[in-house]
Amino acid sequence: MATAKIFVTPVSIRAEHAKLTLGHESSRSEIVTVSTPSAAARGAAMLFAVILCGAAPAGSAAAKTLKSGDFTGASGHDVSGSVRIEETGGKAVLQFSSDFAFDGAPDPKVAFGRGGYDPKSLLGPLKSDAGAQNYAIPAGLDVSGYNEVWIWCEEFAVPLGMARIK
Questions:
Q1: What is the DSSP code string of 80-103?
Q2: What are the DM13 domain coordinates in residue numbering (predicted)?
Q3: How many helices (DSSP H) and strands (DSSP E) are in the chain?
Q4: What is the edge-to-edge ordering of all strands in the sheet holding 29-36?
Q5: Which of 61, 70, 95, 106 is paired with 126 by a 20 to 30 Å CA distance?
Q6: Inside any domain, residue 85
Q7: Do residue 73 and residue 42 come from a single domain?
Q8: Which of these ranges, 23-27, 43-47, 67-71, 77-81, has the smallest mean pLDDT?
Q9: Mean pLDDT, rounded, of the chain
Q10: Distance set, CA 37 to CA 6, 12, 26 (Å)
């Protein structure tokens, strides 16, 4: 039985004569393993998987890191891990690393800043106190003027952590 690997976006697929399994190779991509009984079926299954999974065609835009930095705690809180702004196809996302860790607080929010927290740049509540997480950056928000990512407690109006990004 032959096995081939292709990069695709996450999706669930079932195909006759092909066994498709999803697994992470890295935090930025998905890998599909295609196992088939014959070379002819393998080629057909791979083509089928690429079309249905929406794999990026050759020459499409790859993710570009615009800015990145490392978190430090504030106001007696412990925050660690890295953060980056990734842009793909004109859409920007703020990505926390898998080693992100925060000791917790009430009402933590994620926003940008320059010399301090900017409530107009609020991306939303912190999704988790630990691990990788993504925040969509609204199309109208120009991140080029910001050099900080803040974790901010709205309830008590205090900084919990910050990363200088460049």
A1: E-EEEEEEETTEEEEEE-TT-EE-
A2: 69-166
A3: 1, 13
A4: 2-8, 29-36, 19-26
A5: 61
A6: yes
A7: no
A8: 23-27
A9: 78
A10: 18, 21, 28
